[in-house]
Amino acid sequence: MVELSISEVAERAGVSARMLRHYDKLGLFRPTRVSGNGYRWYDRRSLPRLQRIVALRRAGLGLEAIAEIVADEESELEALRRHLVGLRAERDRLDSLIESIAGLIDELDRVGSEVPGRARFEQEKEAFAQRLEQRYGPEAGAALRNDPLGPLTDADVAHTTAVMRQLLTRFADLMTQGLPPDSAPVRALVRQHHDLTTRYWSADLASYRRLGALLETDPLQCGITGAVDPGLPAWIARAIEAYVDRRQPLN
Fold it and tell me: Chain centroid to CA 83: how far?
């Protein structure tokens, strides 16, 4: 029996030794033996299994799905078919997002760079108010137009825009870490987003929930948020929904 060290196996498979140790921990690809000094050794005949795992991983399958596939020889074709369906759905979603972002670019081009920040902000705000009215009625649009602090200066707009971008980046970080939208760290960040929003919008919790829905469905808002991460609009919408559910009294 020809044995290979963990570094030799890693080099042949194009993965890191750390990943091999992770696969061992999951029971996905175990060494043939572990020597007294803790070194992992692999039978060369086990390499096809690892190469199969690596190929499936690069195809985008999760480790749980791969574990099922390598345990059941007959399941690989069906799993890949399901994965292909998911990839096509994701492609369609990304195509839709691309169209939204392209529309956002066109809209900003129409506004023109010569328009001062405050004027551009007011134009975008009015357009958003009209979309709120179309979906939720006149009161929703009126709530957005009723500015609690009065007209904003160009400096106010620049500051608010910068803070909102920072919040979206932090939302994306939490999302990529795998935190659920209703987790405590996410709720704390939604609270900051809510506080910032109510600085220029007299929005009650019901109105804030509507804003969350529009982040996912309105092309302009979805384009702005999705430019940070394509999955962010839907994730923040769920986070706002969970935040409002916790704060609204039960009937």
Answer: 19
